[in-house]
Write a structure and sequence with these properties.
The protein has no helices and seven strands. By secondary structure, the protein is mostly beta strands. The protein has a domain of 60 residues. It is globular and about 35 Å long.
C-alpha cells in the first residue's frame, strides 16, 4: 500500500498570491497537501502521514520517514474527482 508515492517540496508562495504547483492537467484523482506559514507560524495539515525534509526534497515512499533521515508530516487529502485542475486556498487561519 502506498508503494509508488512521492512527496515533493517546498514551494515558497507569497501571501495573497497564487502559484501553480502541478503543470498541465491532473493525472491522479487524489492529491495531498501540507503547508506551513514560515513567517507567522502555523500550518495546514491533515491525518495522512508522509515524509518531508527541511530543504527542497523529492522523496519516494511514505514509510519509515525518520529511519530514512526525513521528518514525518500529516497531509490533508483532496479528492479532485475527474477534474483537470484543482485549487486549494490557504486561508489566513492556519491550524
Amino acid at each position: 500500500k502506498k508503494a509508488g508515492w512521492i512527496t515533493e517540496g517546498w514551494w515558497h508562495i507569497e501571501g495573497s498570491t497564487c502559484k501553480t504547483l502541478i503543470e498541465g492537467p491532473l493525472s491522479s484523482r487524489f492529491y495531498y497537501l501540507y503547508a506551513e506559514d514560515a513567517e507567522r507560524g502555523g500550518r495546514w495539515d491533515g491525518p495522512i502521514n508522509m515524509c518531508v525534509a527541511e530543504k527542497e526534497f523529492k522523496i519516494a515512499g511514505v514509510n519509515d520517514c525518520v529511519a530514512r533521515g526525513f521528518q514525518r508530516a500529516g497531509f490533508q487529502e483532496y479528492d479532485t474527482g475527474e477534474q483537470a485542475s484543482w485549487m486549494v486556498q490557504l486561508t489566513d487561519e492556519p491550524a
